[in-house]
Amino acid sequence: MFKQSDAIRDYVFPIASAEMQGDSVAVKRVLGTAFLIGSQGFALTAKHVIAGSEAERLVAIFALQSGGWFGYEITAREVHSTEDVALVKLDGSPWKSFFRLSNSVEHASCKYRLFGYPDDATFELVAGNQAVVRPDLVYNEGYVRRRYTGELPAIQGTSFFELSEIAGTGASGAPVCKITAPTWDVIGIYVGEKINDRATSVSYAVREESFRSWVPGILGKSVLEESQNVTV
Length: 232
Hints:
Structural class: mainly beta
Radius of gyration: 17 Å
Order of helices and strands: EEEHEEEEEEEEEEEEH
Strand content: over 45%
Largest sheet: 6 strands, antiparallel, barrel
Distance between the termini: 5 Å
Number of strands: 15
């Protein structure tokens, strides 16, 4: 369960293509958002966040209270066969997550909260002659507009929640959590937006029920089972 001494940014983090420079991280580009589950340094994200980055060094970056960054290299990754979901392993992560998969079925009007790292909140500082990329954590909340089962243009998978609010590019991979739950129960993973013929947008999350039973080879058990090892 989330405690007052915890910080959300210790559990929800940006995945970036980056270089480690001693204890600091030189970010090349931010790919999206991920969140820790369980107690072994595993995290869930959207599949398209890491797609095409096989040749790049991926790093999970966390903000330090001193104002700098610390990075954990992503040492393993695996993608879901059908849904826009991926699991990554962080090297040496010491944290146990308070996020758990909901193991429930939600419908329209379910209220949710979301934390992520959208592109429009990322900025650059200049240290000497070198640009320093700084993602910033952003809060979003809304309600499920409807359940949707079927294909969507440019979005992988077939099992979605249509959401009331746009979180933005870069928030892909963020946990969508029930507000009413006493713990941080994840009902979905944010996967993107689409623009309709009237140039208005709606956003989507892949439903947790479609991937909770997934057993990645790098984990050896279902992601639901691993997520039950929450902090208390």
